[in-house]
Design brief:
With 166 residues, this protein is mainly alpha-helical. The protein has helices spanning 7-23, 33-55, 59-76, 86-101, 107-121, 132-142, 146-157. 67% of the residues lie in helices and 0% in strands. The protein starts with 6 loop residues before the first helix and ends in a 9-residue tail after the last helix.
Length: 166
């Protein structure tokens, strides 16, 4: 079922995730190993909620939760001891959900998702952990027009990847 993405839901889930992350930080802004479970537990619960929304056909809420997770967990990874790998797993699962839901969104919702992921992909916070490749994969899957493809692949045409000229 195709749906529009509600921007108010985006704000709601971003605020909720920021609050969860802050609750586990020490006074220096770091989430130690012990507190990491107190933070990742509620985020796993939100991820399960996104899966439930997906199964119920509510792609709006599903994508809003996953966008917030993608945005906030990528920052959180640089401020925590994720020896357990839970935060990385949460990010991976959120991306997998978006990868599957993105293609069935209505055109305007898909455009907003594309714009969000494109803006996020350009941010440095994703490169340190190799998270950028997941965002790029999703962008390729939901890119459904020559205009989007032009924006998406422009950095590669101008980079060292394009080293063979005729």
């Amino acid at each position: 079922m195709a749906e529009e993405i509600d921007e108010d839901s985006d704000t709601k889930y971003n605020k909720r995730l920021k609050s969860i992350v802050r609750s586990g930080m020490d006074r220096d802004g770091f989430i130690n190993y012990r507190n990491s479970y107190e933070v990742t537990g509620p985020i796993f619960d939100l991820l399960e909620k996104a899966k439930t929304f997906r199964m119920d056909g509510d792609n709006n809420e599903c994508v809003s939760i996953c966008k917030a997770i993608i945005e906030e967990v990528s920052v959180m990874l640089g401020q925590m001891d994720d020896s357990s790998g839970d935060a990385g797993c949460i990010f991976d699962e959120a991306c997998e959900i978006v990868r599957n839901v993105g293609p069935v969104l209505l055109p305007k919702a898909k455009d907003r998702l594309f714009d969000f992921l494109y803006r996020e992909y350009a941010k440095e916070k994703y490169t340190g952990f190799g998270l950028d490749s997941q965002l790029l994969d999703i962008l390729v899957r939901i890119s459904d027009s020559p205009k989007k493809n032009k924006y998406l692949f422009a950095p590669f045409r101008q980079s060292d990847f394009y080293c063979y000229k005729k």
